[in-house]
Design goal:
This protein is mainly alpha-helical. Strands 1-2 form a two-stranded antiparallel ribbon.
């Protein structure tokens, strides 16, 4: 199976979420498309992998970061310091791979799509109501609004590859 260079893909939905209620509404629409057999993906992951990936990155700052993400090199932290605002409130670029991480990222395990969706909805609910307890390995301590913004941008990025036809 060949992979798509998602950094160059034009086949994406234009998404901009102001809050997690809007993400949940989009998940409702995607859920209906999955149930109706009309969901189409334009990236390299299926819906369950997208949902699990988004949920994992919402869970890490509450639970524990995987070792691959826990201690980025100093130069990566230095560069990301200047991108913090953009990543939280601007747009996340597609096609970025985390250096030194097999496959370029983590948290993309496949599972039954209903379980992945439930996991994502639970992670959204928790992040919406409470601030994470661990600092970001890239950005250090962050406000609750920054955590929410970062994850809203992450949802925009990955959910943009899921289409209802």
């Amino acid at each position: 199976m060949s992979t798509i260079d998602t950094g160059k893909s034009q086949d994406r939905r234009a998404l901009r979420f102001a809050n997690f209620t809007e993400v949940s509404r989009d998940l409702d629409v995607l859920h209906a498309a999955i149930a109706g057999g009309t969901l189409r993906t334009s990236g390299n992951w299926n819906a369950a992998q997208v949902f699990n990936h988004l949920a994992a990155f919402m869970e890490y700052p509450f639970n524990r970061y995987p070792s691959e993400l826990a201690a980025p090199p100093w130069f990566v932290r230095f560069v990301m310091k200047f991108m913090r605002r953009r990543m939280c409130f601007g747009r996340m670029p597609a096609g970025v791979k985390i250096p030194g991480v097999r496959g370029g990222t983590v948290g993309i395990e496949d599972s039954p799509v209903d379980a992945a969706e439930a996991r994502l909805r639970a992670a959204i609910a928790r992040l919406d109501r409470e601030a994470p307890t661990r600092p970001s390995p890239l950005f250090g301590p962050m406000s609750h609004e920054e955590w929410k913004g970062l994850n809203l941008r992450h949802c925009e990025l990955h959910l943009s590859f899921l289409h209802t036809r």
